[in-house]
């Protein structure tokens, strides 16, 4: 039954003959399995296909029902929660984001933010809580294979607020918790610039740097979920901290606006903006020809080149993808990054910028949930 369902999930409408050719099973077995899958709710029977010349009874036509249920992907961070709802082929049906007051907010308030994002996304997808088969959740902390969050750093510990237990107890869903960079790697391998690349590294580099790795098409996890954590970058000459691109752009821009510094349009932003200088403003100023902003981004690109060189020396990926909230603007970093990388490696990996934007973690959470459905489909109860 699982083999037939797997073929149908990857295909459009199929006949019994199609399934026989794909699985090698006997016709009687295929038809019996299809009838069982129809009764279980996974498959629907379509009207027979019309043929110009046809002898005998029309062929029965079957199709996997991708809307018999949905999956949810969540990205839970310190400032916001984003929820995606997808059908069982991975088509995104709705997205919702809710802001919160940082990781110091009470746990109840943060759980309520998750609930608001979920409710809005499900409503926009015209789906009910009962339609959800699995939820995947990404957080910026190491997660072991049993779903336990590491407590070796205060920030990691602050993310351990009982998300899995809350959703399981309220809705009865299987809830899968995973590290955000690992999910980013899954998303890129599934539908990003890393699609089809089996030796892949994805660098989430917004506020802090973290890596997710695929080796021979399999996600690297580590004994306690810490594969890809790079907290000791202070040991790397020319790097010094695990700060990411956005954090560096802001800090370097503020430093560049001090008294007697070279003229820059960033100084005007620093004086007039209520929120100060954002990373997006630095990228925008550089694109408009501001020399100081261009120098800042050149320095960041070279710094990231050193980070990639250290990682690639150990992991030997074919492709490194820069992902996260600032990835859309990060193409300007590629030239200095690649130049610096070439100084340290004779055959460096290819480096590209993600096209998935700030949805990269939630898409990975969707992929995690879909993988669970595909593996455990026959044990899941459908509300049909």
UniProtKB/TrEMBL annotation:
Xref: SUPFAM superfamilies: Actin-like ATPase domain (SSF53067), Winged helix' DNA-binding domain (SSF46785)
InterPro entries noted in UniProt: ATPase_NBD, ROK, WH-like_DNA-bd_sf, WH_DNA-bd_sf
Pfam families, per database record: ROK
Protein family membership: Belongs to the ROK (NagC/XylR) family.
Record's protein name: Uncharacterized protein
Provenance organism: Arthrobacter alpinus
């Amino acid at each position: 039954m699982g083999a037939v369902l797997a073929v149908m999930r990857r295909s459009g409408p199929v006949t019994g003959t199609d399934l026989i050719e794909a699985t090698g099973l006997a016709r009687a077995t295929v038809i019996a399995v299809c009838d069982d899958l129809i009764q279980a709710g996974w498959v629907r029977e379509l009207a027979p296909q019309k043929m110009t010349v046809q002898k005998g009874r029309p062929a029965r036509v079957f199709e996997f029902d991708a809307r018999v249920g949905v999956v949810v992907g969540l990205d839970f961070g310190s400032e916001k929660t984003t929820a995606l709802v997808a059908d069982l082929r991975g088509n995104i049906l709705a997205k919702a984001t809710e802001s919160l007051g940082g990781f110091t907010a009470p746990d109840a308030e943060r759980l309520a933010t998750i609930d608001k994002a979920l409710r809005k996304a499900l409503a926009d997808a015209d789906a009910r809580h009962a339609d959800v088969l699995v939820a995947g959740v990404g957080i910026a902390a190491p997660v072991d294979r049993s779903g336990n969050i590491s407590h070796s750093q205060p920030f990691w510990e602050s993310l351990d607020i009982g998300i899995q237990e809350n959703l399981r107890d309220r809705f009865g869903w299987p809830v899968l918790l995973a590290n955000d960079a690992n999910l980013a790697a899954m998303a890129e391998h599934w539908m990003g610039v890393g699609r089809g690349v089996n030796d892949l590294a994805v660098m989430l580099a917004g506020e802090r740097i973290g890596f997710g790795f695929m080796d021979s098409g399999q996600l690297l996890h580590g004994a306690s979920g810490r594969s890809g954590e790079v907290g000791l970058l202070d040991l790397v000459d020319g790097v010094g901290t695990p700060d990411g691109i956005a954090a560096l752009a802001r800090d370097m821009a503020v430093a560049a606006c001090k008294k007697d510094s070279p003229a820059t349009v960033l100084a005007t932003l620093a004086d007039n903006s209520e929120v100060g200088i954002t990373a997006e403003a630095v990228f925008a100023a550089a694109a408009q020809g501001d020399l100081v902003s261009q120098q800042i981004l050149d320095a960041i690109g070279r710094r990231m080149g050193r980070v990639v060189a250290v990682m690639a020396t150990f992991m030997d990926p074919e492709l490194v993808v820069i992902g996260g909230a600032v990835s859309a603007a990060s193409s300007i970093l590629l030239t200095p990054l690649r130049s610096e990388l070439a100084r340290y490696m004779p055959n460096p990996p290819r480096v590209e910028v993600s096209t998935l934007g700030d949805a990269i973690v939630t898409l990975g959470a969707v992929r995690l949930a879909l993988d669970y459905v595909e593996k455990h489909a026959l044990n899941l109860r459908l509300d049909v």
